[in-house]
Amino acid sequence: MWAASSLSRLLILACIGALTLTLLGACGGSPRTKTAADAAANTTAAEESLLADEGASDQPADKAEPAEEAEPVAPTVAKVGDAITLTGQDDAERVKVTVVEVLDPMPTGEFDSPASGKRYVGIVLRLTNVGSSSYSDSPSNGAVVVYGDDRQAQGTIVLEGPCSDGFSSTLKLAPGESGKGCLPFEVGATSTLKRFKFTLASGFADETGLWSLRD
User: Fold this and answer.
1) What are the residue boundaries of the structural domains of the chain, listed by start?
2) Contact criterion met (CB below 8 Å) for 178 and 204
3) Does domain 78-212 have CATH number 3.30.450.20?
């Protein structure tokens, strides 16, 4: 009797143990171990993502197209008879300069002879002091005639004729006053006159007037 009872208890305990193991296996399952291959795969994916981000940041940002620069406006070239108002080294010194006419050839006296292969020409100017200070200058020092293949002629001196009155070397004008005279030049005997340039303050002012001498 006792043996049967003990055997029954052992069977019951065995069944309970088996049932417990079955339930634990179904509910919890075994923990997953991270293999070296999985770790490498995850690391590679992370590196690829990082490199992609770095590559994107290394790419230069799109630069804005620079605005097209406006082409410089060509200076207006005056003609014979036109006036240009120029400023000297002092803002109060302002002179209206008019190229009245061109003497070509320029009349001279018997003692005036141009160098070999040269001829005399004269530029007749009218200068009007439109500033608030007196104007004193040697006009020929700031005057240039461009001729031929862009050669430049400085003023010269003659003893007789319309360009020998001293206007080229000494001129003084009070505000509102005007002076008229001729500047003599030596240019190539057969060269074509191109341009006349004039700058106040014996050529040291910042502004330069430009006149075309072509017909």
Assistant:
1) 78-212
2) no
3) no
